[in-house]
Amino acid sequence: MMENERFCELKRMPSLETKRLLLRKMKKDDAQDMFAYASDPDVTRYLLWSPHASLAHTKKYLAYLEKQYRAGRFYDWAVVEKCSGRMIGTCGFSSLSPEDLRAEIGYVLNPRWW
Question: Are 9 and 23 in contact (CB under 8 A)?
Answer without folding.
Answer: no
